[in-house]
Amino acid sequence: MRNSRRRPATPLGRSLDIYYRDADRTRRMDALLAQVVPRGGLVFDIGAHLGDRTASCLRLGASVVALEPQPRVFRALRLLHGRTREAVLLPWAAGAAEGEITLHLNTRNPTVATVAPAFIAAASDADGWRGEQWDARVAVPVTTLDALIARYGLPDFVKIDVEGHEATVLAGLGRPVAALSFEVTTIQRGVAHDCIDRLRALAPYRFNLSLGESHALSDEDWTDADGMHRRLDALPHGANSGDVYAQLA
Predict the structure, then answer these.
(1) How many domains in the chain?
(2) N or C: which end of the chain has fewer CB within 10 A?
């Protein structure tokens, strides 16, 4: 019988179920990323977690530099993709400057580890987030997008999913890239607004939105920075999260 097995009880086991055992989700992700990831291109996966988007980009024929600072998650990521020649895996965070930073771990839900205390504060009493606990800390090394570019080359696509730290990651980017995505949450819309403004300062971009786990663009037409600001402001709180996609106009 399909799905007759019990889901794994461990947090990483649940993540594996969500990110690797849903064929429909995988097909949607591949179809979406194929619009922004060229075959033979280079991708930076910032906040890779278990590397489902890394896996998608590899299937699309790209090479990937993936950053995941959580020690236990990184070990699992290395088991999944460490033997792939086209994947470089780094146990680092990204930020505005190189150095070291405190990573707040949610051991029951490792998908929401964060280096941003403001994200934890915003989640503390928000619908859909109550009960989340960041119960451990670890110091992790920090690099920048510019440093990664200097070492590995200019990426064709950058994915940023770092729980409220997205604008700080983009502060470490000093030149435009062809395409990227960054997470937006309705508990911290201001972070997404800052990301849009940062990109607009670098170059003219056009924007679209993928909500939740749909892995599909919500809008038929791409919009400019002002249009995406309005789009994010109009999202109901229950939308919770999604990804803003940006391409050079």
Answers:
(1) 1
(2) N
